[in-house]
């Protein structure tokens, strides 16, 4: 009797498997149909077209957000692992509506990438098998015609790269927290890079209803930011609240304004990257809605540090926070992709050289206004700066004793001598420093830590970095205004000469030209 019912039901889709995309042979298929065929004794059919709905802003229709993707993947995984369905073929049926079909294909493709460990290209090719009609590109949430096409493959590549970079892990992903905080009434915030970037809607001077929508004061966000390890807040829109409401609570706050819907000047982009690279904790970024300007600059960081393509970065930001990056911001990111990749490659190359090069173990002894070689030291100090290829020039603090330095540049002294200090460019065994391929725009704070036995002492001292061709002295007023375009490498010849004669006073007194 059951077999007769099954055979009768199978008449509803006699060519389904011939026209479907085979994802797992004899196990999982993806097919298009005008209506959902009922399941049979050997086939389990299901559809998400009317269950998982994208909430559009204007003409945008996807891709789905992280919560929707997580629910689908876990649901499908349960079906494929179910003992009840172990001998049945599971078929995801999608509509012939091109937008619904594209969204369904996105879900199936992501399952392959996340759970079946396939590359984005392999997952995409599986979706193209059979006679399933083609897919349509995604578009932004802005008014007017689309000027940038985000195709399905780019979205799958974004998810694949996010998994490899550690941004996405459904074993640890907190679905309830994501859905709670994405709501406007609960803060309207989304993690883009876990433990690094939060995008959120701009705070107001006070919590209230604005045209029926709740908005929040800075104080509303403080408990969550502290809990999440946020150290820095970056504002990209006009001032609506006083920044001191964050700084008085212990957060760093920066203003990097550029117009709503616009693209940042290159100077703003560089400042954003510099702040992000130096921030000791996570960074909360907002504009007015926390979508366009916010997503654009976070995407720049992703392109530089994780080599996302512009399309991949746009896709990932939208998957985390739908509606992000609109209009010409998309094309601007595509134009900046090569620059971000080059900067990121230089940064990684410098870090690799720092870890391998023996030239960077040369001792350099520092005294106010000059470089000297003391006859004897009782402690050796580890010098760390943003770029290991630069030799520091000390901005004289009028004393060789760290105890006389400003409080913000030192901590309590627990060991070592205060008369002479041996600074050593990294790396040394077990020590690493952050690297950057850009020259600091202003004097930066370097860390010096005791090397050897006993209690470690950490001093902080202000240093300035001399770019190629600069002849001004370290005390010149013009020295603070360094032109970032003058180059990214200096001091390698000096380091080479020092490495050949580390004990030579002449070598230690030599300064970069």
UniProtKB/TrEMBL annotation:
Gene3D superfamilies: Protein tyrosine phosphatase superfamily. Keywords: Cell cycle, Cell division, Hydrolase, Protein phosphatase. This is protein-tyrosine-phosphatase. SUPFAM superfamilies: (Phosphotyrosine protein) phosphatases II. The keyword Transcription regulation does not apply. InterPro entries: CDC14_C, DSPn, Dual-sp_phosphatase_cat-dom, Prot-tyrosine_phosphatase-like, PTP, Tyr_Pase_AS, Tyr_Pase_cat, Tyr_Pase_dom. The keyword Transcription does not apply. Residues 188-345 form the Tyrosine-protein phosphatase domain. Pfam families: DSPc, DSPn. It is an enzyme of class 3 (hydrolase).
């Amino acid at each position: 009797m059951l077999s007769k019912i099954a055979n009768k039901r199978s008449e509803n889709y006699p060519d389904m498997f011939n026209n479907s995309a085979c994802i797992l042979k004899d196990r999982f298929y993806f097919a298009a149909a005008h209506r959902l065929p009922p399941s049979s004794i050997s086939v389990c059919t299901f559809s998400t077209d009317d269950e998982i709905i994208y909430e559009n802003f204007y003409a945008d229709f996807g891709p789905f957000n992280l919560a929707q993707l997580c629910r689908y993947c876990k649901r499908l995984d349960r079906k494929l692992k179910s003992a009840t369905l172990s001998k049945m073929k599971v078929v995801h049926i999608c509509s012939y509506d091109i937008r619904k079909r594209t969204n369904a294909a996105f879900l199936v493709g992501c399952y392959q990438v996340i759970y079946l460990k396939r590359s984005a290209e392999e997952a995409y090719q599986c979706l193209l098998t059979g006679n399933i009609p083609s897919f349509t590109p995604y578009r932004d949430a802005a008014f007017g015609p689309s000027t940038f096409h985000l195709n399905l493959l780019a979205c799958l590549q974004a998810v694949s790269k996010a998994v490899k970079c550690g941004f996405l892990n459904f074993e640890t992903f907190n679905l309830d927290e994501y859905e709670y905080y994405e709501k406007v009434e609960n803060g309207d915030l989304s993690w883009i890079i876990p433990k690094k970037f939060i995008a959120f809607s701009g705070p107001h001077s006070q919590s209230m209803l604005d045209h029926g929508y709740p908005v929040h004061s800075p104080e509303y966000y403080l408990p969550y930011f502290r809990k999440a390890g946020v150290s820095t807040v970056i504002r990209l829109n006009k001032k609506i609240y006083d920044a001191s409401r964050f700084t008085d609570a212990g957060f760093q706050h920066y203003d990097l304004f550029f117009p709503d819907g616009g693209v940042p000047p290159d100077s703003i982009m560089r400042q954003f990257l510099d702040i992000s690279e130096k921030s000791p904790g996570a960074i909360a970024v907002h504009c007015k809605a926390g979508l366009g300007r916010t997503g654009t600059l976070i995407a720049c960081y992703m392109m530089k540090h994780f080599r996302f393509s512009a399309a991949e970065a746009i896709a990932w930001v939208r998957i985390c926070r739908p509606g992000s990056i609109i209009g010409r911001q998309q094309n601007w990111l595509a134009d900046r992709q090569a620059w971000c990749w080059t900067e990121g490659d230089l940064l990684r190359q410098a870090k690799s050289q720092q870890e391998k090069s023996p030239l960077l173990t040369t001792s350099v002894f520092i005294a106010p206004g000059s470089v000297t070689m003391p006859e004897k030291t009782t402690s050796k100090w580890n010098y760390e700066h943003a770029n290991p290829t630069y030799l520091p020039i000390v901005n004289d603090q009028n004393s060789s004793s760290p105890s006389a330095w400003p409080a913000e540049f030192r901590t309590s002294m627990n060991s070592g001598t205060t008369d002479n200090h041996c600074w050593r460019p990294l790396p040394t065994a077990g020590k690493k420093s952050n690297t950057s391929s850009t020259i600091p725009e202003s004097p930066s704070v370097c860390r010096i830590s005791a090397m050897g036995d006993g209690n470690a002492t950490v001093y902080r001292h202000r240093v300035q970095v001399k770019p190629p061709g600069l002849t001004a002295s370290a005390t010149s007023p013009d020295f603070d205004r360094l032109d970032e375009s003058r180059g990214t490498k200096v001091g390698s010849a000096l380091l080479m000469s020092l490495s050949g004669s580390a004990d030579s006073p002449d070598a230690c007194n030599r300064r970069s030209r």
